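Notebook, student rotation project (T.W.).
Task set for the rotation: take a protein with a known small-molecule partner, predict the structure of the complex, and write up what can be learned from the model alone. Partner molecule chosen: zinc ion. Sequence and SMILES entered below by T.W., checked by me.
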Amino acid sequence: MQSEGAAVRPATAEAPSGGRLVAALDIGGTKIAGALVDGEGRLLARSLRPTPAAQDGATVMAAVAEVLGELTADPAWVRVTAVGIGSAGPVDASHGTVSPVNVPGWRGFPLVERVREVTGPLPVTLTGDGVAIAAAEHWQGAARGYDNALCMVVSTGVGGGFVLNGALHPGPTGNAGHIGHISVDLDGPLCPCGARGCVERLASGPNIARRALENGWRPQAGQEPTAEAVAAAARAGDPVAAASFARAAQALAAGIAAAATLVEIEVAVIGGGVAGAGEVLFAPLRDHLRAYATLSFASGVRVLPAQLGTDAGLVGAAAAAFGGVLRARG
Ligand SMILES: [Zn+2]
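Predicted structure of the complex:
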């Protein structure tokens, strides 16, 4: 199955794969997705399992092996030359291990070694899921054509990854760009990570909903109190709902301004469910960004919505496996 949006434009003029494919895995707290991906980012075969996140580590790995088993059984598997894995983090790419917060059965789990037991001697590239999203948006999405970008996912959590000097910048362990856990409020609320005032603690979907509820917003009858419901209320003119999104936007703006000032990103791409709120988020975000990104070299940073949807993790894992982000010529 080819995914809508994953290959709406041709990739580089010189498709680097020469007919070769990579096997991509996107491992999260709720699902384990796999695909065979070609050099233009098209998904040629897919497999999906729910993540048995509450089970022991061997059971989770068995689900990964099932996904891989479906891919290795595909006739196109003979063209696969590498494996790319994007995993919920933290990951440790230098050791090939993962410790996803939402999968307690995996702590220092030797994922790369276990995947190799299924796939044989193919090279395996492991990155954090935020880094994979950055690779995907740079290859096929909104960051295409930018040499310096921060790509973020704002959803149940907040994550991200960097493209710097035209290349993916995963950092030594594959976690660089994890903007959700930089502090933008020195004495702010305690974050589950142990720090205070993290971007995620202020800007994630659950925190947008929690803050709105605390300030008197109520969902309509039969409606769940989600960030999506808060966004709908904000669009309808509810000031408490709008204020909760504005506060999230302020936290994101401070984080983006810090990134622009530190490494001169030209663009920040924002995806994930919270970004689906559209202008309810992006309008106050642009306003706050003007207040925080003040220095001449940082003030031009642009903010764009992500273009890739739920396949971004797979496309990004594939991009990383193809040997770094492929330079776009768009
Ligand atoms: Zn934190």
